[in-house]
Amino acid sequence: MDVGALSTDTVILDGDNKILAYNIVNTGATATRAAQRSYAQALALAGLAEDDVSHVISTGYGRQVVPFADAQVTEITCHARGAHFLFPETHTVIDIGGQDSKVIRVGNGRVLDFIMNDKCAAGTGRFLEVMAKALEIELEEMGERSLQARHPVTISSTCTVFAESEVVSRIAEGRPTEDIVAGIHASIANRISAMLKRVGVQEQVTMSGGVAKNIGVVRAIEEKLGTRLNIHQEPQIVGALGAALIALEKRSQP
Hints:
alpha/beta; 5-stranded mixed sheet
């Protein structure tokens, strides 16, 4: 179970590493309640009862408040394990979540080095939410809209508050929404690129987290890096998957 700032994700594995069910819910105001709700829904999807589950690992910022967890593991470790399981040739992981972003260098699923931005919302899911509101468009529209850009604007600020002011100024200038959104995505790519330089980039690169569903951000990062990103069909569950893999290992230990 991955209890994040914006979503809580649960993955249930069987003894053969097969995903029986997964679930994503909004975390809301109470992480413990979200964990209980996500767990109950995942169990229902798998057709299981709580007694059928032998070991639970929690991860994410709210990992300490999951009452039914047997142990807690950092999200850095879990994202590395989950990404390696899905894409075995992964050597670099980019995880952009609701309120933080991480770049992890991986060797055989183990963390070799990492850098994390958890002090500022810039370049995260929350950053995109603020920008979508300023532009008066739906968050889900941003990816496709940015691909229609003809002359992307430059968003120079790395601070959410100042970047929002820049966006408002570009709107007042009459710049097309598509060009502004493309500039927002490019600013995220620049920020991730700077983080990657600090830990080193080695292919293959896997992207996890909810922002990986935004095709505009994905394309901007791919263009910046000059390489294609591995992205699972449900990138939000990578951390929870890693936790489930670790739970399976611990269950097998004497």
